[in-house]
Amino acid sequence: MLSQPLYATAPLAGYRQTINGTLAQEIEHFSLIAISIPDGGHESLNAALESHWQLSLPETGTCIRSSDRAFAQNSSSLVLFGMQTDQCLLVSTAASAFEQDPFEHVQQLLGDAAYLTDQSDSYAALDIQGPTVLKAMERICTLDLETFTASTVARTAMEHLSVIVERPENDRLRLYSPRSSASSFLHAVTTSLALAY
Amino acid sequence: MLINHPQLGPRDAAEFVYLGDASLMHRPDAQSPTAAEEFHDYLHLRDNPAGVHRELWYHEQGDRAWLIVTRNTLTHEITNVQMARDVALAEQQGHVAS
């Protein structure tokens, strides 16, 4: 038995910095669960999502946000990303609101309606918010982020690193990138922010 | 080069990985009496046209879907992009892919 409890370090060590008027901030304590749809199981999974969170399966490239209070603390903190045909990601930034593990909670509710994989520890999440957000992304992102709304999501590559992009607010992007290369990703983003003014 | 993904719209070719001739989708039947000859042709024989070519591209840095891209190898003009999944399902149902 350890005399001192051990706590996992955040992938970006809680990074928070304002660069040229835009805030870059790591999002900690989020839950990210991959949902794969069994063959022919769209209807039953849709019914389960609807009954538990008033959600439905999103089209690829779109996201749906829930206002379910039993799962999340506020209306924007539970999101379903349509990542590809037959697969989506369920993301919550209110993991601390659970009395039990979020993955176990979702597993209990969805049962056999979906194949689930807990990927919460596989990603680093970074919010960038401010007037230079889109300008900074022009250097490293090939997507036209001007056309993104709160209902858009995309996976792309930035400096050869895989990144999932959403735009919850006009001047805010949330970026998810693999934990193993998180510091390289942060370097790419902060370098771009420093060059955007 | 931009590839107009049927579900996601135009995406930079850097997000994709090129595999090759779309005929690779038609894997021979291993139980066929002429399987050895068919697999030889499948593995080693390719058309290499200077012009219109149907080819497989994998959207690795995107939605991980396989696409069939019809591309002119001389000009890089892309005239058609289909989800390989849709083409395979249509072929199973007896429809000829366009």
Outline the biggest β-sheet of chain A: 6 strands, antiparallel
In total, the number of strands of chain A is 11
Task: Give the oligomeric state of the chains in this entry, treating copies of one chain as homo and distinct chains as hetero.
Answer: heterodimer
The CATH homologous superfamily of the largest domain in chain A is termed Aminomethyltransferase beta-barrel domains
Quickly give the CATH architecture of chain B. 2-Layer Sandwich
Overall structural class of chain A, as computed from helix and strand content, comes to alpha+beta
Overall morphology of chain A? globular
Tell me the name of the CATH class of chain B.
Alpha Beta
Rounded mean pLDDT of chain B is 94
Helical amount among residues of chain A, as a percent range? 10-25%
Number of helices of chain A: 4
Helix content of chain B: 10-25%
- Largest binding interface between chains: A-B, 13 and 14 residues
Order of helices and strands of chain B, N to C? EEEHEEEH
How would you classify the helix and strand content of chain B by structural class?
alpha+beta
The global form of chain B is globular
Beta content of chain B comes to 25-35%
Name of the top-level CATH class of the largest domain in chain A: Alpha Beta
CATH architectural category of the largest domain in chain A: 2-Layer Sandwich
